[in-house]
Every structure is written in C-alpha cells, then in structure tokens.
Write a structure and sequence with these properties.
By secondary structure, the protein is an alpha/beta fold. The protein has 10 helices and 11 strands. The protein has one domain (2-280). The protein has helices at 2-12, 31-34, 41-55, 86-92, 106-113, 137-145, 147-155, 202-206, 260-264, 266-280, and strands at 22-27, 70-73, 101-104, 124-127, 159-162, 188-194, 199-200, 218-223, 230-234, 240-250, 253-255.
Length: 281
C-alpha cells in the first residue's frame, strides 16, 4: 500500500485540473471475442483489462468520481457464425454489466452519448469489434456522426477504447468509416492474421502488457500510421496493431501541448497498471 500511495502521489504531481487530456486505446485485435474463444483467452482478457484500466484511470479521468461506468457499444440481434457477443468477452475480462458498464446498440446509443461526462453518465466509451464482436454499421455511423462530441469529451479527460474494425467475417460494416469517430486516424487496413511473432513495444509494456498477451489468437486490422499516437504492439512484419495515447486531440491529430505533463506521467501510470494486474492475479 505504501508503494501504491507513493506512485499515486508522484503522478498527481504531474497532473493538474487544467491539463486533463483524453486516454485513447485502439487495436486491431478483437479481445472481446478471444476473451472467450480462441487459443489465448488469458492474453485477450489482459488486453481488455490493460486498455480499460488505461482509459478509466481515475488519476487521469476526472469523470470517474461521478460517472464510474463506461458505455459499451455493440449491436444486438442475430450473432453470425464466426462472431460472438463482444460484451460477453468484456464480462469474462472481469467487468460487470450494470456496475462497470452499460451496453447500448443503435436504438439507444444517441441518448447514451448525450451522457458522456455527465454525473451518473459515462466516463469512457468501449467499442466492440465488428469481427468477432458484432458492432454493426448502424452503431459505427452514429459514433462517426458524433465525432465532434466524442473529441470534446476526450479533451475534458474522458476515455475511449475501440477494437478491430475491418468489415471482415460476416461483413457487418460494409459502408466503412472504420474508426471514423477519430478522423485523424489514417487508413486502418483490413488484415486477418494469426497472432504469431507479435511484439509489445516499451510503451505497451508500460501499460502492463507482455508478448504473451498479443500472440495466440487472431487480429483483423492494422494501422498504417500512428496519427501521433504511441505504438503498443506490432506484428512480425512491423505492422502496427495497437495505438494508445493520453493527450489533447483535434480532428487533425494529437496535440503535443498542453498535455505534455500528462504524457510524462504515463510511465508511472503504467507501473500502477502493472501493480493492479498483479493484484488481480
């Protein structure tokens, strides 16, 4: 407990209320699916835990105190072959529906987005994959249409975690717009591949991830540019699989200032994340 208190105090010295910035984690993995199905459920759950801990860290997300839940975005309706309910993988990763998160599909998503940052609303957004979760075009279109609101929410300190978007599998997002709620993210190319020889970067390691977490399942898109974000892991050919950042953003990209002090604190936050992971067992 003493070590934890010292780490918390150290990070707080780097953060002031005037320097809140959003925490964003994007990945071409689909750990919402593989937390239940596939060769490495433990690794998929660790990705979910690391990503959600990152975007929901109360040291950096000021909304946690009054809105501790995150908004989970995924379609309802029939589950095509090769897919599963992504929210089941979030539950398998240790998060409780109704306590840690609420699920919304296209029929209720617009109203739920109105509650971002509101007391009793949501401090973060988690977006299911479109393969093997069941994010559909209807949900993606709503998110993309609300891009300005989402960016404003992030710049006030909110969090966002989004999983693979590729229109592969059952082709649930045929009109595209993948990750379009963050317009500065350049083309996220579809690429189905088995996870072999993937490598976590030092930044990814600072979030508590290890190589064993990002191998042994499958992934479905890569990122062809960083958009100013930090690379979390790469495949065996050096393609970018996951990106994360804690910074102010605009539709054009990451803004180095005024979030530099928060970025300096990311390493310490990663140490805390690793400590939490060990405590979770």
């Amino acid at each position: 407990m003493r070590i934890r208190a010292m780490l918390f105090a150290a990070v707080f010295t780097l953060v002031s209320p005037g320097l809140w910035a959003g925490s964003i984690f994007l990945t071409g993995h689909d750990p919402d699916f593989h937390a239940l199905l596939g060769g490495n459920a433990v690794g998929a759950r660790n990705i979910n835990q690391a990503a959600i801990d990152f975007i929901q860290d109360p040291l950096f997300n000021p909304f946690i105190a009054t809105a501790p839940k995150f908004l989970f975005v995924e379609s309802t309706g029939p589950v095509p072959g090769g897919h599963t309910l992504g929210r089941s993988g979030i539950v398998a990763s240790g998060f409780v529906s109704g306590t840690d998160f609420d699920h919304h599909d296209a029929s209720t998503l617009g109203a739920a987005l109105d509650l971002l940052g509101a007391a009793g609303g949501y401090s973060g957004i988690v977006v299911a994959s479109d393969f093997g979760g069941i994010l559909r075009q209807a949900e993606l279109d709503i998110l993309n249409a609300r891009s300005v609101d989402i960016i404003d929410f992030l710049n006030l300190g909110g969090g966002l975690y989004a999983m693979a978007e590729s229109n592969n599998g059952a082709h649930l997002t045929p009109s595209g717009g993948h990750f379009g709620f963050l317009p500065f993210i350049v083309t996220a190319a579809s690429l189905d591949q088995s996870e072999t020889g993937f490598t976590v970067t030092p930044f990814g390691a600072s979030l508590g991830l290890v190589n064993g977490d990002v191998n042994g399942n499958a992934s479905h898109n890569i990122f062809t540019s960083t958009g100013g974000m930090n690379i979390v892991d790469i495949d065996s050919r050096g393609n970018i699989l996951s990106l994360a950042v804690r910074a102010q953003i605009t539709p054009d990209g990451v803004v180095p200032e005024p979030a530099s002090l928060i970025l300096m604190g990311t390493g310490l936050a990663g140490i805390i994340g690793a400590w939490r992971k060990r405590q979770r067992g």
